[in-house]
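Kindly inspect both lines:
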Amino acid sequence: MSAVSYAGIPLALLATTAYNVGLIVEKRALGRMPPLDVRRVPSVIVSLLTSRVWLAGFALMLTGLACQTIVLTFEPVSVVQPVLASGVVLVLVLSRLMLRERLSGGEAWCVAAIALSVVLLALSAAGSAANAGHYASPGWMTAVIGLSVVIGILVAGSSLRARTGKHGAPVTGVCFGIGTGLLYGVGSLAIKALSGILAGHHSAVGIVAGVASSPYLYTLAGSMAVAMLLFQAALQACRASIVVPVSAMTGSVFFVITGTWLFHEHLPASPGKLGLRLAGITLAALVLVMLSRQAPEQAPGRAAGEAVPGYLADSRRR
């Protein structure tokens, strides 16, 4: 394992820890807020920005994103993203301790399997800075980002149109997870593109000017803003143990596949390390799927003290 990987994997772990702890803090804050209605964006923003607890969680998430940008300047997508996705383990542990959600026996085995996938990933990390791509075709980036944003909004929007009636299935959070995962994956692509500016400039002035003039900065801001609004509604209305794993799995698979292709990165040349890399990524993806199916979802608002967003409450009264 190279010195770069020794620094990169711990930094990626720091990024996912800060990000996912921030999610749990936000979830606690959302439980104390009035129901969010994403059809009224200004009121949602006011509710979020006036909560000190939510702002603390948001600050942790921003710290995680900053660490992610740095680590992507010297580590390939295929190494970084599965490590970031492993933060779902921390979500499950903290959801048990802070949110009083139970960790079933099946979830405990999944946690152990994800830990194993991180070990396999660490053992396979033999890359150097030369293996981390920094530049992608603007045309292909535009096409992939545009299509992914449209699909993500449509899929997440299907949860907004969901109806819960006497014989209807409750909103499970799976569509929310898939849609927001795609939008967060687009944000990760933008972060990866911005990391090329860090690698290509050696002065603070050059970095600031390059970032400010890059369309990827505004792509990142837009995709993250939309994803965040939808994700906050999902966290408030659905179980974190469903929304977070599905979103992380979708974003991870999307980013690994599209990021590795767009930025011309390569898997390890050694058959042994390639096997470890693929085994770690495959195991992480499979476990995330299993986690999303572990606990049966409850209808929004049926648990004690759980808030019901306005658009769901309206649909249930019809």
